[in-house]
C-alpha cells in the first residue's frame, strides 16, 4: 500500500546575511495510513521544520513531499490543504479570542464551503460532542476556558474538514498531566474511530510510548533512528536515542530499571548515528 | 527543631482588594531542614510558585496581596519582614528560575552581574577577587571557558549554559537555602538532566538546603529527599520521596502518578481531570509531621 505521506530526500536550509543553517538534511521517511508516527528530538532537531514543510507553510530547499503517492506542489489545491490539518502546541494562542468557539470550529467549513449554513451549525455541534464538549460551548468565547478545553476546540477545528492527516505539534506539552492524559486518550480514540494518521511532534518520550505506533528520532536535522515504538524502546540502536530515553525523569521503579538498562545497554547491532 | 532553615506555618494568601479577593493558599505548612532537599509539587494554579515567592519576600510589598500565617527564615518572619528577607536575597537565600535566559539581564555582560552578586555577600570584595571567584564558580559548574562566559551576554550563551551560570551565581555566596522554581523546565531533556544532577551534586557538597518547586513528579523523584504535594492551595500529601512514590495514599497523588505517561508503556488510564476525592484531607506519612515550635 502507498504510504499516506513520504518525505523524499527532503532538505531545508535557512540562510541570512551570508550565514546558512541546515535545518533538515536529506530526510527520507514514510508515514503509513492509520499510524500515529511520532517525530522526536530536542531543540534544533528539525522537527518543527518537518511540520512546516508538510503543512506547506514554506518550500523545501531540496527533495519533495508525496501525499498518497503524488508530489505536493508549492501551490497546493484546496483538497490538498483540506487533507492535512494542524493542532498547535499552545492552546492559549491557537484560538482567536474575538471569535466564539463555534465560529472558530466553523471557519474551516466556511473556507472550504462544506455544506449549507444549517448543516454547518449541526456539524459544529457534532464536532464539539466528538471532542467531549457541550453544544452550548459554541456560543462562548475562548477567554476563560481552560487549556484542556481550548485544546479540545483546536482538535475539533482540525477535524472539521475531514482531514486524512493531522500534524500534532507538541499538542499536550503545555497541559497539566491529568488534562494531558485526557487529551491523549481523546486523540487516540479519534485516530481509531476516524482512521486518521498522525504526525505527532514531541520531545517527550514517555508520551511517545503511550500513544505512538512508530517513532523517528531526529538530531540536528538528521534522521537518527526510526522504527516501531515497542521495538525502539526494547532495543534502541542509536547512542542518541539511548541518551534521550536515559534522560527522562521517571516515576516508577519499573521505568527506572528500563531506563537504566537502556542508559548502560550495548546495542546489538551497529548504530546509525555517525 | 532548631535545624530548620525555613518553616512555613498555616500560610494563607489571597489576591485582590480587602473586600473582594480570591483565596490562593488555604493554610500551607512546610519545613526545610539544613542541607535537606524538599520538593513542593503541584499543577498550574496549585499555589506552589506563590509559596516560593512569599518565602523569598518577593510578594509582600504588593497592596493586592493579603498573607497571614508565618514564614520563618533565618529568624525573620517573612510575612511582615518581606523587606528584610529581600535584603538577604542572593546571600542567605537564593533563587533559580524556570527560564535562565530571561532571568539574567540581557543588557549587561555576565561578569558585571556576577560581581553584583558577590558584592551583595561581601561589600568590600575587590574587582580582581570577584572575578577570580566568578571564574572558579563557573569552572565548578563545568563551563568550559569561564573567562569567555563572563565576557558574554546571556543571549550569546545557550539555555543550558545560562542555567549553569544561574546555578553558579545562586550558590556563589553559599546561601543556607536555595529555592529552585521549575529549574530546567524550559530546557531540552538531556540538558535538564545534566543541570539537575549538577545542582544536586553542588548543593550536596556544600550542605545547601533546597526547596524545589516543580510540576514534574519525575524530576522530584530524582532530586528530592522529601515531598509535599499541593493541590488548589492545600497540601494533600507529605512524605519522604520513597514513601510517596512507593505508597502514594492521597487520591490526588495517585491520580497524578497514574496519569503520567510511562516509558515502560501500559497505556493511559481513564481518570477525571477533577474529582471531589482530590479535596479529601491531607495524608502525612510516618515520621513526617511538622516540627513543634516556631524557632528556626
Automatic annotation (TrEMBL), chain A:
Is Kinase found in the keyword set? no
**UniProt-listed SMART domains:** AAA (SM00382)
Which Gene Ontology MF annotations are present? Answer: ATP binding; ATP hydrolysis activity
State the source organism's domain of life.
Bacteria
Alphabetic keyword roster: ATP-binding, Nucleotide-binding, Transport
Annotated ABC transporter domain residues: 5-245
- Signal peptide span: none
Q: Which GO terms describe its biological process?
A: transmembrane transport
The answer to keyword ATP-binding applying to this record is yes
Give the family from UniProt: Belongs to the ABC transporter superfamily.
What name is this protein filed under? Peptide/nickel transport system ATP-binding protein
Species of origin reads Kaistia soli DSM 19436
From TrEMBL, chain B:
- What superkingdom does the record give? Bacteria
- Start and end residues of each ABC transporter domain: 8-257
**Main subcellular location:** membrane
* Subcellular location field: Cell inner membrane
Q: Name one GO molecular function term.
A: ATP binding
Q: Among the record's GO biological process terms, what is one?
A: peptide transport
Record carries keyword Nucleotide-binding = yes
PROSITE patterns attached to this UniProt entry: ABC_TRANSPORTER_2
Which InterPro entries would you find in this protein's record? AAA+_ATPase, ABC_Ni/Peptide_Import, ABC_transporter-like_ATP-bd, Oligopep_ABC_C, P-loop_NTPase
Entry GO CC: plasma membrane
Chain segments carrying region Disordered? 267-296
Asked if Glycosyltransferase is a keyword of the record, the answer is no
- Which family is this sequence assigned to? Belongs to the ABC transporter superfamily.
Q: What is this protein called?
A: Oligopeptide/dipeptide transporter, C-terminal region
Provide the species name.
Kaistia soli DSM 19436
Amino acid at each position: 500500500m502507498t504510504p499516506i505521506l513520504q518525505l523524499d530526500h527532503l532538505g531545508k536550509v535557512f540562510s541570512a546575511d551570508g550565514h546558512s543553517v541546515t535545518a533538515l538534511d536529506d530526510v527520507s521517511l514514510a508515514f503509513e495510513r492509520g499510524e500515529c508516527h511520532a517525530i522526536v528530538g530536542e531543540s534544533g532537531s528539525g522537527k518543527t521544520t518537518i511540520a512546516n514543510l508538510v503543512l506547506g507553510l514554506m518550500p523545501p530547499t531540496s527533495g519533495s513531499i508525496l501525499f498518497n503517492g503524488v508530489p505536493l506542489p508549492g501551490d497546493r489545491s484546496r483538497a490538498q490543504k483540506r487533507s492535512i490539518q494542524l493542532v498547535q502546541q499552545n492552546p492559549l494562542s491557537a484560538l482567536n479570542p474575538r471569535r466564539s468557539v463555534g465560529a472558530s470550529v466553523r471557519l474551516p467549513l466556511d473556507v472550504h464551503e462544506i455544506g449549507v449554513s444549517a448543516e454547518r451549525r449541526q456539524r459544529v455541534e457534532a464536532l464539539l460532542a466528538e471532542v467531549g464538549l457541550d453544544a452550548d460551548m459554541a456560543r462562548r468565547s475562548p477567554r476563560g476556558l481552560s487549556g484542556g478545553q481550548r485544546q479540545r476546540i483546536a482538535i475539533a477545528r482540525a477535524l472539521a474538514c475531514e482531514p486524512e492527516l493531522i500534524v500534532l505539534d507538541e499538542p499536550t506539552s503545555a497541559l497539566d498531566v491529568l488534562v494531558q492524559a485526557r487529551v491523549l486518550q481523546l486523540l487516540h480514540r479519534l485516530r481509531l474511530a476516524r482512521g486518521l494518521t498522525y504526525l505527532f511532534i514531541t520531545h517527550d518520550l514517555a508520551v511517545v510510548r503511550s500513544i505512538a505506533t512508530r517513532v523517528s528520532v531526529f538530531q540536528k536535522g538528521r534522521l537518527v533512528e526510526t522504527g516501531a515504538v515497542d521495538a525502539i524502546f526494547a532495543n534502541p540502536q542509536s547512542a542518541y536515542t539511548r541518551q534521550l530515553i536515559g534522560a527522562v525523569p521517571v516515576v516508577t521503579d519499573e521505568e527506572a530499571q528500563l531506563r537504566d538498562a537502556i542508559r548502560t545497554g550495548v546495542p546489538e547491532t551497529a548504530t546509525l548515528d555517525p | 527543631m532548631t535545624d530548620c532553615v525555613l518553616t512555613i506555618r498555616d500560610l494563607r494568601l489571597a489576591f485582590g482588594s480587602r473586600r473582594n479577593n480570591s483565596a490562593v493558599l488555604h493554610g500551607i505548612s512546610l519545613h526545610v531542614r539544613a542541607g535537606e532537599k524538599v520538593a513542593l509539587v503541584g499543577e498550574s494554579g496549585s499555589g506552589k510558585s506563590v509559596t516560593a515567592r512569599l518565602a523569598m519576600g518577593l510578594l509582600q510589598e504588593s497592596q493586592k496581596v493579603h498573607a497571614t500565617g508565618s514564614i520563618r527564615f533565618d529568624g525573620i518572619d517573612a510575612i511582615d519582614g518581606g523587606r528584610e528577607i529581600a535584603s538577604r536575597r542572593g546571600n542567605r537565600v537564593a533563587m533559580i528560575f524556570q527560564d535562565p535566559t530571561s532571568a539574567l539581564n540581557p543588557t549587561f555582560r555576565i561578569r558585571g552581574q556576577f560581581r553584583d552578586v558577590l558584592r551583595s555577600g561581601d561589600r568590600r570584595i575587590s574587582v580582581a577577587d570577584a572575578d577570580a571567584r566568578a571564574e572558579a564558580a563557573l569552572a565548578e559548574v563545568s563551563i568550559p571557558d569561564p573567562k569567555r562566559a563572563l565576557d558574554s551576554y546571556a543571549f550569546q550563551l545557550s539555555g543550558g549554559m545560562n542555567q549553569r551560570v544561574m546555578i553558579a551565581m545562586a550558590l556563589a555566596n553559599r546561601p543556607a537555602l536555595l529555592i529552585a522554581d521549575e529549574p530546567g523546565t524550559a530546557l531540552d531533556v538531556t540538558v535538564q538532566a545534566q543541570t539537575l544532577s549538577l545542582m544536586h551534586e553542588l548543593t550536596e557538597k556544600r550542605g545547601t538546603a533546597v526547596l524545589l518547586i516543580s510540576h514534574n513528579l519525575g524530576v522530584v523523584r530524582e532530586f528530592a529527599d522529601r515531598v509535599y504535594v499541593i493541590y488548589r492551595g492545600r497540601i494533600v500529601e507529605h512524605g519522604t520521596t520513597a514513601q510517596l512514590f512507593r505508597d502514594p495514599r492521597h487520591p490526588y497523588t495517585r491520580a497524578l502518578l497514574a496519569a503520567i505517561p510511562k516509558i515502560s508503556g501500559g497505556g493511559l488510564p481513564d481518570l477525571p481531570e477533577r474529582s471531589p476525592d482530590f479535596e479529601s484531607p491531607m495524608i502525612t506519612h510516618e515520621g513526617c509531621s511538622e516540627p513543634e515550635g516556631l524557632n528556626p
